[in-house]
Write a structure and sequence with these properties.
Oligomer: single chain
Number of strands: 15
Helix content: 25-40%
Number of domains: 2
Shape: globular
Largest sheet: 6 strands, antiparallel
Mean pLDDT: 83
Strand order of the largest sheet: 10-11-12-13-14-15
Length: 301
């Protein structure tokens, strides 16, 4: 009996110890899960805080940019008795961490009858262009444009569509993508000589105002893309044709060129004619060497 009693007692002790170990393991596992959850929550909270800080900074920058524009307009209004003037300066916030280069110019840039005020603001990340009509000494915004600072290459005032009116053109080069991507955004001056059309964007264009034609190279790899030809139609353009190399089923050139009414992958694509030579009108456009893959040995494109 004593032996049986001792065995029974030992069994009870072992079970007790085993239960304690299980409870201890369970406690450790539970604590581990809580630690992981806390780590995830902390990371999420940090990301949210960072996002809120970025958004707050962007809102601050936006408000400051608006303030800079308001100040520029005030400067222009102080000189409203003069139709022609220019002024450049740098606006800086109190802690000097954010600067905006401001260029103000007023003159008869688009018309001999009505002066326009042009304000360019260059921030660390973007270029903003605001154009105002100053008829009867009243400042009225008629155009706004924004472009990434690293993409912006310049702007110009010229008759782009051959109607005798000077238009506003912003030129920029795309930062993303593999291929030739020089863009122009065109704002056509309307007959009132004060306001402008909506932006019309072209890729790799060559403008021919006398013909009222725009020719250019589409987006794509050298020797594998198309060229286009558009004709101005008031504040829009109509497609005249596309031209590209004909290739067989193996992707090899046949020596012919295809002229079509639309891009080859379009549902409404229709072949208009096949040519054995490149028309002279395309040989002088910007990007023609890219189209033919006839690039110089230095690798320039």
């Amino acid at each position: 009996m004593k032996t049986i009693t001792q065995l029974f007692a030992n069994t009870i002790i072992l079970l007790f110890i085993s239960c304690e170990q299980v409870d201890e393991n369970k406690t450790i596992a539970t604590n581990h899960t809580d630690t992981t959850k806390t780590s995830v929550d902390t990371g999420k909270q940090e990301r949210l805080q960072k996002s809120e800080m970025i958004e707050e900074q962007e809102n601050f920058d936006s408000l400051y940019d608006d303030k800079v524009l308001s100040e520029a307009i005030k400067i222009a209004e102080q000189r409203k008795a003069r139709d022609r003037f220019k002024k450049s300066y740098v606006a800086t916030i109190p802690d000097s961490s954010y600067q905006v280069k401001v260029d103000i110019s007023s003159g008869f840039y688009f018309s001999h009858q009505f002066p326009h005020l042009i304000v360019r603001r260059t921030t660390p990340s973007s270029v903003y262009i605001d154009i105002f009509s100053t008829t009867n000494k009243q400042v009225q915004k008629v155009l706004f444009y924004e472009q990434g600072k690293l993409e912006y290459t310049g702007d110009t005032i010229r008759d782009i569509n051959g109607d005798g009116l000077k238009d506003f053109v912003v030129n920029w080069y795309g930062s993303n993508g593999c291929c030739l991507k020089a863009f122009s955004n065109v704002f056509l001056l309307r007959a009132d000589k004060k306001s402008y059309s909506s932006s019309i964007e072209f890729i790799n264009p060559t403008f021919s105002p006398k013909e009222q034609i725009v020719r250019g190279v589409c987006y794509g790899h050298p020797d594998e893309t198309e060229m286009y030809k558009y004709k101005w139609n008031k504040e829009a353009v109509d497609t005249v044709e596309y031209i590209y190399y004909e290739k067989n089923d193996k992707g090899e050139k046949t020596g012919k060129l295809i002229v079509s009414n639309n891009l080859p992958f379009s549902d409404r694509h229709k072949v208009l004619k096949r040519l054995s030579y490149m028309p002279a009108e395309y040989r002088k456009i910007e990007g023609y060497d890219w189209f033919t893959d006839n690039l110089d040995k230095s690798g320039n494109r």
